[in-house]
Write a structure and sequence with these properties.
This protein has 214 residues and is an alpha+beta fold. The chain is 15% helix and 31% strand. The protein is globular and about 45 Å long. The protein binds N-(carboxycarbonyl)-S-(naphthalen-2-ylmethyl)-L-cysteine (MD3) and fe (iii) ion (FE). One of its GO terms (molecular function) is broad specificity oxidative DNA demethylase activity.
């Protein structure tokens, strides 16, 4: 029997909450094209550890592409058209990311998704992301698409209250998540990345989140 691409590249979409979809392996067929597109982005806007408003430095290193990028400093969290490191606009959002994000969003029922910001998070083994809400975007009716690459992670999908006990969701290289609607403001985070070496990505996890921020 002939296997479909879905069988070769991942399992079926999984609904984690009413408007949170996990698309296992959705990005796998395009990983090499995606990594090729990411290289010049990260050359122009290297990963850096930003300061939190409280004066600590973030464990996750980050970069951005698109007309807006997420930044954090002593003045707070916000989207900015300029990379504070270079003083120049963030690199453009690569076509492969725009089309992948639109296809993933459509698969989850969000038609016509056109992101203007891609936050690129870099995790080393031991790095975690504590529970938070994403509230810096203008329009909470717009979905967010995230792409996981490299070392596996345990994603924490919480509720609308910080105190709600989170679901633990394993994420692997090539997995894509789409969330929106009533689930857009759920608390979420990432458990410390376990030590390991991914055969393609080495000792790191990279997560891309595509948003309509402005
Ligand atoms: C919210 N990044 O950058 S993907 C972030 O893996 C962030 O680097 C994480 O949270 C990361 O702000 C998680 C984002 C994500 C995925 C699914 C969600 C956030 C979600 C489902 C509901 C609410
Ligand atoms: Fe987040």
């Amino acid at each position: 029997m002939i296997q479909s691409d879905l069988d070769l590249f991942g399992s079926q979409p999984q609904s984690l909450a009413s408007q949170v979809m996990l698309l296992p392996g959705f990005a796998l067929p395009e990983v090499e094209v995606l990594l090729d597109a990411l290289r010049p982005v990260l050359r122009a806007a290297p990963f850096r550890h930003m300061q939190t408003p409280g004066g600590l430095h973030m464990a996750v290193a980050l970069s951005n592409c698109g007309s807006l990028g997420w930044v954090s400093d002593a003045r707070g969290y916000r989207y900015s058209p300029l990379d504070p490191l270079s003083g120049k606009p963030w690199p453009a959002l690569p076509e492969v990311l725009l089309t992948l994000a639109a296809r993933a969003a459509s698969q989850a029922g969000f038609e016509g998704f056109v992101p203007d910001a891609c936050l690129v998070n870099h995790y080393l083994p031991g790095t975690r992301l504590s529970l938070h809400q994403d509230r810096n975007e203008q329009d909470f009716s717009q979905p967010i698409v995230s792409i996981s690459l490299g070392l596996p992670a345990v994603f924490l999908l919480g509720g609308m209250q910080r105190s709600d006990r989170p679901q633990h969701v394993p994420l692997s290289h090539g997995d894509v998540m789409v969330w929106g609607g009533e689930d857009r403001l759920r608390f979420h985070g990432v458990l410390p990345i376990k030590p390991g070496k991914h055969e393609r990505m080495g000792e790191r996890r990279i997560n891309l989140t595509l948003r309509k921020a402005g």
